[in-house]
Amino acid sequence: MRLSIEEAEKLANKLKFRHEDNTVIAVVQDYKTKEVLSVAFMNREALIKTVTTGYLHLWSTSRKKLWLKGETSGNLQIVVDIKIDCDEDAVLVLVKPMGPMCHTGNFSCFYRRYSEIL
Amino acid sequence: MRLSIEEAEKLANKLKFRHEDNTVIAVVQDYKTKEVLSVAFMNREALIKTVTTGYLHLWSTSRKKLWLKGETSGNLQIVVDIKIDCDEDAVLVLVKPMGPMCHTGNFSCFYRRYSEIL
């Protein structure tokens, strides 16, 4: 998906960036397998970059920095669709991954069952 | 799933409750259809209640209150499995819903495409 800057601004205006560092929560799901790949945050700029470029951008709450997911690894996440939650402070980003989402090399960040960390 | 209080405490000790009000992010997914139903927060108490009772409990950051999901509506969410993310500050809760997750009556909180709110 690719939106014009006007549409992107309009979408951003409808969202409530009320989480950490003025963000919405972004749940990232593989559009095909429906596997949940990650959960992270998007500030207004990350949301606008995501929908205007078609590539997943996030706000890093630890590094206080906007980042293009896969910028260094090459594992870009192509955005296919976005869904909005009932109270407009979270988005579900459906992606077509060009590689693993997780920095560990695993396809999903949720690669362990709870019993594996006990 | 049902854990003993000892196992539940052990699991909680491995997690980093570092989000709003000392929580982990909880992504809730239907274990069968893989539909993402909601994203919310769990503090230590909500996590322990969830894994010891087998029913989804959350921490409401707006009401500053622990709640059993479905307590008033009857739409309890039965927990089937839990996955942990790479940095241990988010969990993916796989549930068998006894009814809609969303307070609007929709099955998922993510019931709208972005284009519907523009």
Question: Would you kindly provide a brief summary of this structure?
Answer:
With 118 residues, the first copy, chain A, is α+β, with helices and mostly antiparallel strands. Chain A has helices at 5-14, 44-53, and strands spanning 23-30, 36-43, 57-60, 65-68, 77-84, 90-97, 112-113.
| CATH level-3 fold name of chain A | Ubiquitin-like (UB roll)
Quaternary structure: homodimer
The helix tally of chain A amounts to: 2
The stretches of 5 or more residues of chain A where confidence is low (pLDDT under 50) are none
Task: Give the overall form of chain A.
Answer: globular
How are strands sequenced across the largest beta sheet of chain A? 2-1-6-5
Distance between the termini of chain A: 40 Å
Describe, in plain words, how this protein is organized in 3D:
The structure is a homodimer of 118-residue chains. Helices cover 17% and strands 36% of the residues of chain A. Chain A is α+β, with helices and mostly antiparallel strands and 118 residues long. Chain A has one domain (5-109): Ubiquitin-like (UB roll) (Roll). In chain A, the strands form two sheets. In chain A, strands 2-1-6-5 form a four-stranded mixed sheet, covered by helices on one side. A two-stranded antiparallel ribbon of chain A has the order 3-4. In chain A, helix 1 packs antiparallel against helix 2 (44-53). In chain A, 41% of the residues are buried. The mean pLDDT of chain A is 97. The interface between A and B is large, with 40 and 40 residues. Strand 5 of chain A pairs antiparallel with strand 7 (112-113) of chain B.
